[in-house]
Amino acid sequence: MHFRQPGQRQIGIGLGPIPKDLIILLCVLFASYTLWAFEATRGFIRLLQLTPDVWQVGFLWQIVTYPVAESFNGIWFLVVAFMVAQFGGQVFRVMGRRAFWRLLLTASVAGAVAAVVGQILVDLVGLRSPFLAQPFLMMQGAEMVLAILIAAFATFFRNATIYFFFILPMRAGWFLWLEVLLAFIGFLATKDFGGFVGLTTAVVVTYFLASGRGFGRWLRETRLRAERRILEVKLKRMQSKAKGRGGSDGPDDGNVHQGPWVN
Asked: Is the pTM of this model over 0.85?
């Protein structure tokens, strides 16, 4: 995979020099992935994953620990780990150590809180699907880490063109919408409403943190854009009315107006 910033040379994204912090993160994920594969140690990882025990039993630490509690999912873990290394390296080099970890912690905790609230509401109104084996399955472990890193990469390099498999071009900024779309498709397949809410929230929070805009600034900018659109519409209407009055009261090209004022 590689990307090109407009007007700049092409930059590769591969498994080149990976930051030590990212290597540690991948090692922790691999350790939990391995422990989950054995019945004797699976219970320990289950205690770290995000589950309904957060509000049913009071296991509040799961809101923080679930991004590093990976389940055994076969070769898929290697694919996700490879992408974490690709995107994470670029994000780490842009942000630095402290901002990188602060982003992961803030976005993942925000996603977990939103997921828990969403699942509680679904349970209260009785809309929980009987086919849902485990809530929050979509956002456990490396899946949440990857979602945050891709969202940060798409925010930092939104004007870059990414070539999947060196063939399919895609603007990096589109990844934000693509992640939400994939999360919704995952919800349709698993009925994991809490996981969908958590992933979407993490992507949104990551965008605001990485862009430096902040939610309040985004609201102000949205309001100002809306007010400008309204003013533009009003101005066009006033101009149209002015042209209409000018056309009826202006020169008549030599024709005599017939009316009660003509003797």
From this structure: no
